[in-house]
Design a protein that fits this description.
2 copies of one chain form a homodimer.
Chain A: E1 6-14, H1 18-35, E2 39-44, H2 49-55, H3 61-68, E3 72-77, H4 87-99, E4 104-110, E5 126-132, E6 136-145, E7 153-161, H5 162-177, E8 183-188, H6 194-208, E9 215-220, H7 221-230, E10 237-240, H8 242-255, E11 263-267, E12 275-279, H9 296-308, H10 312-327, H11 336-348
Parallel strand pairs in A: 1-2, 1-3, 3-12, 5-10, 8-9, 8-10
Antiparallel strand pairs in A: 4-5, 4-11, 6-7, 11-12
Bound molecules: 3-isopropylmalic acid (2 copies).
One 3-isopropylmalic acid sits between chains A (78-79, 89, 93, 246, 280, 282) and B (191-192, 222).
Domain Isopropylmalate dehydrogenase-like (chains A, B): 8-343
Binding site for NAD(+) (chains A, B): 282-294
Pathway (chains A, B): Amino-acid biosynthesis; L-leucine biosynthesis; L-leucine from 3-methyl-2-oxobutanoate: step 3/4
């Protein structure tokens, strides 16, 4: 248990449905924290498409340094069709993940018995993806020549280091050690991306010797997508690179009840900077501002946030409130705020 | 219709279940070609793990030049656990695809009504993935420094050219034009891989102006995996890069009845070198040599082969024979050869 009882929380609602779902997540966080004698002192940061249109800024360094002073960050969503693709993603979301060294992008998947899965027989799905968050093809190390001509060439460089791979692999094994299934599956493509793939494979094999209780498995990313559909219950902890992790966690969300339930933490396990919690879903601009979005993923992200801050009981209370709400869901539509209110009420106890 | 009536076919059974499934595919090809007054003159190439162990060779250039003289290639599977990962894949399979300029890697997906899908409600699945085959992260343009030390760094470079992207995009649009749904979906990740992603997006937008009847859609690869699970019937022609295509075609196979049915063509549309046809599944070493593999994907690959050679009636006959066989499948197990015999018998008419 944490002994700290006041936390500084930076809130970045962001684009599209981001502000709506974070509003509900904060409602639930307040309801729960009151019960545990904890307060969250919030600072909202106006970042995203509106800010960029008004000022041309995505995330000025001074603001990044302000955000860095918080205990944690709650983020809604980043991305808007009125902004060239990549500007906000690279300039805001990835800038936060990289600058704050969020090397563990944690994405749990679980099928709630009462929620439908598009799979006919999903089985006992309960795994977590440990997606590397600071390397791989996400480093922004690419370029283009002769743009717009028939001789254009564009490159993207995936950068992988022993330093970066080992720390995230070690985190994955430590998580597996604390879970009942005790299994780590490395997902990569080491039969084609031989340089990066062999670094990952060798690192997993080396770290595995320190965790004799953990079963270790390797799957090519293409084969992993098959098993996520035909036998998702086989997974426990999946460790993988930034891009493969991006792809398979959306698939994982889809098979386990939908992107409306998928929470994530961008974690700096060394606690040298604040970790950031966000729903896996995007900004969904088509339904933004209409109170149609499901805030559950954002709410579950605050459970991960509490857990990270050592508030394990608060985390459990949020999860229990969400589970209870999900179990009683009917086909009757509810607004974003109605879902938030219902979960906050349960969470308050 | 083709007027040629004798074709030179290079056969590379390869590893694991490859030789078994190609044997059945050839059986069916012979049964059908007899009916259409066509013959396939075969040359078998002993390539793969056994050859590598014996000689250290994957695909010597002289042999590649021999293979090049054929009208088409039938390939089983490449990859074996006794060979370091990547050696055969890069040295044999990818060497063929790159050297023979197979820039269209064609992978159709269709749900056969009588075959189960792991999805509860797959809907009317009938799409084709046009996967780029000669660029992207598959170019082998990477490296590693200080291997095996804590200071190791490994890179993988994705190379994309206007030349390479435009020709495959044009092929995708031409295919969509000939299909009833008339839709092209570009799958990429242009909010992160901005250099390559923008080249792809601009190219699709430019080529689209020449195809006013075709509806155009864009999906990030992560979102595409969600739709492949929740609404696969929305797709018609998907065009994507080499790595994203690798990933989503395995997923596509999984949702549409399994990897046992997924056929593919590595096509050189300019006919400057022979195209190569192969099942999407791998070498499955765990069941190799046991007559347990389903040869259907290899057999369907010969339908794509016939189609490519202008033998459209023969292609249709193979597909019809497979469809009829699939419709009468029971849970009773059949050997690889039994399935091949049954389909060959139907195909002979
Ligand atoms: C918005 C985008 C940059 C982001 C990513 O690719 O990481 C998102 O898809 C995610 O998974 O959090
Ligand atoms: C075996 C491997 C190199 C190959 C690929 O990645 O292209 C396979 O997965 C495929 O899809 O044909």
């Amino acid at each position: 248990m944490s002994t700290q009882n006041s936390f500084k929380l930076a809130v970045v609602g962001g684009d599209g449905i981001g502000p709506e779902v974070t509003a509900e997540a904060l409602k639930v966080l307040d309801a729960v924290s009151a019960n545990y004698g904890v307060t969250f002192e919030r600072t909202e940061y106006d970042l995203g498409a509106k800010r960029w249109h008004a000022t041309g800024e995505t995330l000025p360094d001074a603001e990044l340094e302000e955000i860095r002073k918080h205990d944690a960050i709650l983020l809604g969503a980043v991305g808007d069709p009125t902004v060239p693709s990549g500007v906000l993603e690279r300039g805001l979301l990835l800038k936060l993940r990289f600058a704050l060294d969020h090397y563990v992008n944690l994405r749990p998947s679980k099928v709630y018995p009462s929620v439908g899965s598009p799979l006919a027989n999903p089985g006992e799905v309960d795994f977590v993806v440990v997606r590397e968050g600071t390397e791989g093809p996400y480093v922004g190390n690419g370029g283009a020549l002769r743009v717009g001509t028939p001789a254009e060439i564009a490159t993207e460089v995936s950068v992988n280091t022993a330093y970066g791979v080992e720390r995230v692999v070690r985190d994955a094994f430590a998580r597996a050690q604390a879970r009942p299934r005790k299994k780590v599956t490395l997902v990569h493509k080491n039969n084609v991306l031989v340089y990066a793939g062999h670094l990952w494979k060798r690192t997993v094999d080396a770290v595995a010797t320190e965790f004799p209780e953990i079963a270790v498995d390797y799957l090519h990313v293409d084969a992993a997508t098959i098993f996520l559909v035909t036998d998702p219950a086989r997974f426990d902890v999946i460790v993988t690179d930034n891009l493969f992790g991006d792809i398979i966690t959306d698939l994982a969300a889809a098979i386990s009840g939908g992107i409306g339930l998928a929470a994530s933490g961008n974690i700096n396990p060394d606690q040298t900077s604040p970790s950031m919690f966000e729903p896996v879903h995007g900004s969904a601009p088509d339904i933004a501002g209409q109170q149609k979005a499901d805030p559950t993923a954002a709410i579950l992200s605050t459970a991960l946030l509490c857990d990270h801050l050592g508030l394990t009981e608060a985390a459990a209370a949020i999860e229990a409130a969400v589970t209870a709400d999900i179990e009683e869901r009917t086909s009757a539509p509810r607004t974003t705020a109605e879902i938030g209110d219902a979960i906050a009420k349960r969470a308050a106890g």
